[in-house]
Amino acid sequence: MRRFVVRVWALSAKEVRHVLRDPRSLYLALGMPVVMLLLFGYGVSFDLDRLPVAFVDHDHSAASRALRRRFTAGDDFVDVGELDADGAQAALVAGDAMAVIVIERGFERHRARGERATVQVLVDGSEANGATQLRAKAERMLALLGVDGAIRASGAGAPLEARTWTRFNPEGKSAVFLVPGITAYVLAIVAVLLTALTVAREWERGSMAQLFATPVGRLEIIVGKLLPYLAIGTLAVLLVLAVGMWVFDVPFRGSPAALALLSFLFLAGMLGQGLLISVITRSQMVATQAAALSSMLPSMLLSGFVFPIENMPQVLQWITVVIPARYFVEGLRGVLLRGNGLAELWPELLALSVFALVALGVSTARFQRTIA
Amino acid sequence: MSALVVEGLRRDHGAHTAVSGLSFAVAPGELYGLVGPDGAGKSTTIGCLAGLMRPSAGSVRVLGEDPMARGSHARERLGLMPQEYSLYGDLTIAENLRFFGQLFGLPRRAFDERRARLLGITRLARFEDRRADALSGGMYKKLALACALLHRPDVLLLDEPTNGVDPVSRRELWALVHELVGEGMAVLLSTPYMDEAARCHRVGLMHEGHLIAEGEPGALTDALEHEVFELEGGEREVLHAVLTADPDVVAASPAGERLRVVVAPGAGARLAASLAAHGTTLRRVPPDFEDLFLARVAA
After folding, report:
1. Which residue in A has a C-alpha nearest to residue B12's C-alpha?
2. Which of A57, A207, A261, B238 gives a 20 to 30 Å CA spacing to A161?
3. Looking at the DSSP assignment, which residues form a beta bridge with residue B82?
């Protein structure tokens, strides 16, 4: 047992030296996650504001002008001018306006009598996400102004008032929603890539032969190699979350223990995946490509980071079941935004444990103490 | 009992057979040289002995144990110096030594003592803080040897230790190896340099995966029935034409101003007569190891 500890320690200390002496791997491990978080956080935003809106005013009344003024008073919409019906159509087609608000004749009269005053909102639907947000914003604004938008199906009789509250992320900020996804994405790449590279390097440079000629056991090699990267990965998680909370105001409402466990299990799985890749490829070149592909694509596309899993075709939804990033993203959102603890997150923790056990188990079994 | 035993070893790499039907043994206190050109199967043999490759057939024993067997103690008593650069280039001499000392579970005091001694013998003490990448070929090999000796193995496997090493370091390496053998270590060493065969107690001559001759180097060359001559005089090109046409000429190679020729047993007199016409004289010389190799390969 003492020998096991000494050998694992020796291997880990050596690994830490490799990392410290290779600024690139250090950047990859700690710098890249932060840079990517900032890039994604600032660059990939689904939040839209200053949406260009044109107006077609058939009423030409004080009330219609007030509506137009108040509609564009905030940051959400910019008034691109008043047009006639044909001009409005042209503006939509040309992309000069994302929406056209049509105020019908008699608008002021209806309002004065306390009747339903209706305006029509024409939305450019060619960019789905923008259109959805625009619709939501326009509806909200019109409701605020006490007007029924024709874009909403209006109920018969008295106006039906619907109020929606958004919980957990009331401002609907993308960053708050994206940070958990980015964390998983970045961690997956770093953990898989670094592990795959470090083990493949030993094969390629011949030092594996020297290691195998000593009494060191394969379990000692594996544990000694993975421990430092577990530590580096943990550091990267903390760093990314700290930046997320500091720069993007991501809350932390849940249990730290659940966060620690989630991160540990996810990292263990990613390290196992990296190890498996290097054990099979034994070459840094191939390992890099395999590691990047196998970590980047699933954690980006199939984790629910960018595209909600519920909206995917059924086949893709089935595939996401074996993508660990999916559970990590879901778990992180739970811990950070919904204030979840171990009680709510056990399915995610269980799934991550299974993946980690399988990945580490298979790679350990495949790790042969032979050089050819 | 033999420290190393190889019996009927065969090892295939895919469709290619690197070693086949190989048998030899090395006793404690013996320096055994596996001599042969690149691709003869020397490294494969050493890889099997070090437990890095599984034999396709036959067996290897290190101190009576199968080095690949679970729970084998062979590795703890075996030192290996691979042919390739296999230490950590970004670690210093001191760090490489420390790492291997820890893998072998050496206690602190024993490690410090041996490290000091090995650094002294290899004259690397001054460069302790230099990274392995920044060492010359000779210094690197000495460091690799020091790493392989830290745990005082009973068996030492050296795969082409003198390859790429300057003559001074080479002599130092040989002196060190002889000292270790004198202390009772069993040393198996491979080399492509025929002239190094004479430095070994016993030699196994390898060619295309087989042992084509084995014995004490002096006895092997003495027993060679082929005749070896140095040729003087005559035109090089004419000589060359005559020699390549003669089926009894096994090998001819330049040796300074002269030409060194290995001839089939008993064919010397006839060759001397035919070459006299071209103004060439023959002088018989004692065969060396290269002659032996050429003669055996031709056979």
Report:
1. A372
2. A57
3. none
Computed on alpha carbons and rounded to an integer, the radius of gyration of chain B in Å comes to: 22
* Contact of B205 with B299, CB cutoff 8 Å: no
Whether residue B152 lies within 8 A of chain A, CB to CB, comes out as no
Partner residue opposite B84 with nearest CB, options A6, A206, A214: A206
Q: Where are the beta strands (DSSP E) in B78-209?
A: 78-81, 155-159, 186-191, 202-207
Please tell me the total count of domains within chain A: 2
Tell me the CATH number at A87.
3.40.1710.10
Asked if the Cβ–Cβ distance from A10 to B102 is below 8 Å, we say: yes
What is the model's pLDDT at position A312? 87
pLDDT (tens digit, 9 = 90+) per residue, A298-346? Answer: 888 888 887 888 888 899 899 999 999 999 999 999 999 888 889 999 9
At residue B154, what are phi and psi to the nearest 5 degrees? Answer: -85, -20
Q: Residue B103 and residue A214: Cβ atoms within 8 Å? A: yes
Every domain of chain B and the residues it spans: 4-215, 224-298
Name which residue leads in pLDDT, A60 or B158: B158
- CA-CA-CA-CA torsion sign (B217, B219, B221, B224): negative
Which residue out of A9, A210, A369 would a mutagenesis test of the B interface target, given it has the greatest number of B Cβ atoms within 10 Å?
A210
Selection from A46, A91, A73, A34 nearest residue A235 by Cα: A34
Mean pLDDT of A107-125: 79
pLDDT of res. A160 = 36
Chain-centroid distance of CA B132 in Å reads 24
Pairwise CA distance, residues A227 & A9, whole Å: 9
Domain around A142:
51-149
Per-residue pLDDT at B179 exceeds 60? yes
* Whole-number percent of chain B with pLDDT over 90: 66
**Ramachandran angles phi, psi of A150, nearest 5°:** -70, -10
Please state the CATH superfamily assignment of the domain spanning residues B224-298 in this structure: Malonyl-CoA ACP transacylase, ACP-binding (3.30.70.250)
pLDDT tens track for A174-210: 667 778 888 888 889 889 998 999 889 998 888 998 8
ipTM for the assembly: 0.85
Q: How many helices (H) and strands (E) does chain A have?
A: 15, 5
Q: How far apart are CA A105 and CA A61, in angstroms?
A: 9
Task: Please report which confidence band the pLDDT of residue B152 belongs to, taking 50, 70 and 90 as the band edges.
Answer: very high
Given CB atoms, is B193 within the 8 Å cutoff of chain A? no
Region class of A146: left (phi > 0), else alpha (psi between -120 and 50), else beta: left
Dihedral pair phi/psi, residue A146, rounded to 5° = 75, 35
pTM: 0.79
Contact A209 B86 (CB under 8 A): yes
Residue-wise burial string across B177-192, b where 16 or more C-beta atoms lie within 10 A, e elsewhere:
beebbeeebbbbbbbb
Interface list for chain A against chain B, based on CB atoms closer than 8 Å: 3, 6-7, 9-11, 13-14, 17-18, 21-22, 205-207, 209-216, 369-372
